[in-house]
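Q: How would the structure tokens look for this protein?
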Amino acid sequence: MEKITEYFGSMVFDERVMKATLSEKVYKSLKRTIDRGVPLDISVADAVAAAMKDWAIELGATHYTHWFQPMTGVTAEKHDSFISPAPDGRVIMEFSGKELVKGEPDASSFPSGGLRATFEARGYTAWDPTSYAFIKDGTLYIPTAFCSYTGEALDKKVPLLRSMEALNKQAMRILKLFGNDKVRSVKTSVGPEQEYFLVDREMWKKRKDLIMTGRTLFGAMPPKGQEMDDHYFGSIKPRVAEYMADLDKELWKLGILAKTKHNEVAPAQHELAPIYDTTNIAADHNQLTMEVMQKVALRHNLVCLLHEKPFAGVNGSGKHNNWSISTDQGENLLSPGETPAENAQFLLFLAAVIKAVDDYQDLLRLSVATAGNDHRLGANEAPPAVISIFLGDELTAVLDAIEADKPYGGTKKEKMQLGVDVLPKFSKDSTDRNRTSPFAFTGNKFEFRMLGSSNSISCANIHLNAAVAEVLKQFADKLEKAKDFNKALHDLIKKTIKDHKRIIFNGNGYDDAWIKEAEKRGLMNLKTTADAMPHICDKKNVDMLTSHGIFTEAEIYSRRDIMLENYVKTVNIEAVTMTDMARKEIIPAVAKFAADTASAVAVKKSVSKAACKYETKLVTDLSELIDAMDSATTELEDAIAKFKGITEIIKASEFVRDTMIPAMDKLRSAADKAETMTAEDYYPFPTYDKLLFGV
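A: Here is the predicted structure in token form.
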């Protein structure tokens, strides 16, 4: 059997390959670019390109592609072969530094939010040397940034790298104030946990809604859902286990640190979690993970569903973003140590995160806003749409003591006593976990739990990095001017706690009472994408994002429009699919069952003159539901027609929220009730019991 250590990263042009294929001079120059952001010399690019080509061809690659992340939410690629014509009529295999560093894909059909006219086609991709190239399906993939001919960022990588650099710059200022001169860079790290559903491919083919939208637009709950909690961490079914093993191997070949796999709460739901990595690389790896998950599923005659809410009535899927800040010396700046009350540097960074989350709660909320995630947030399975921070008992007590200017007595770690001598005794953690919090401290990192399963993690981390960078800048501006650093530091932490403690909540985020309490505290409750997304253009947000060079003002407005366009187009596709399924499949099926039942009643009465109370009532009820479905479908068709006439994007998003989605809910309600009354043989596509329990 092939050892994992032998094939892990075998398809990645990583440091091992670089050391083996590059000269020492070229390798060191490239490392300086990767580690310190030093500009890359073109002669170095030529040497790297030649080595990449030879390595890739040896592993069977015939093409290369600049792999980028436009604002579509998925990745993009244009493949070119290595071949070049030779004078004798044959071909030679070539790949230059110029081809490595820059590509020119057509940018006209990618979302630009008005930054580019459709006829203005030129765009550029630029090699990102901080993210390793890799081989997949016979092609060398080169991670790249994507920008327009006029220099605007048209992707998610460029702003993410900008946000990481902004946070690095401000964190370095803070560390110097603490006398830390050895650190040369500060980076954020992320470990994104990925939830997903697996369904049988043959059943998937019979559901137009799953094919077109990734979620079921109709479906009544089966007799059993997730009430018994028996799927969570349960024994993995053989077919799923085979898929997971295959998936792990493919991800490991690509150098992706897939670590944990298990069943999630809902039937057919599962989770994969990687080891954390630098945010930019983690974002690339997560995009690649989602793609590989879906491809590997097809090998097993399965379909991997990444939609946030593929099934109503059971838990949806999220993507928990475990975020931390570390130095190049290996110090985690969010690690409290054994005595957090005495760790002033940690407390200052903690205070910065608290203030950043409070000041920019709207940015964090809109960074996870999508049509799919709107179905999940606040549904007693995911955090509410209100942003808050969970710190736990010990850290909250430390901050309370600082605010009150009282000494913190500390807590002694107690041993767990399980009452069985043979079981090991171990120390309890200083605090419990809170799975209902949107933004929870979990020991040495924050877990941002609001991301949807299909989201790119770049969006959330761009705004999180930017917000923390802004607060660190404010802190550094004050502390650098202080005559008495220690006093100024104490006063700053104390004031920050007092001013921003409203964002700290350690209770049950699912409780309706918390939403009322949050409103009293003045916290924002942006329930939908239409509510949240326009806030990116609020003056305070524009000023902050532009001051750190994360976005230009034009890029900010374009992103608002792109994300709202994505929202309204997604819902419109769902609405059209619903009317199509209702008219062509559901209503005819229910009508046929009702007609056949009515015929049976007529025959039965003609023979025995029986009352046929059950059958008569069934036909009556089904007839009423058929009329209700027809009426609701007409109402939704009217809404779709009106939507087409709305040209202003904010008004379109509000119409979708206020008119189209309620009309969709009305149609679904009638159809789902009709499903429960229609004989199984008549229903036109697989129902929830088969989809959720059919693998």
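The mean pLDDT is 91.

Residues 553-608 form the longest helix (56 residues).

Upvote if useful.
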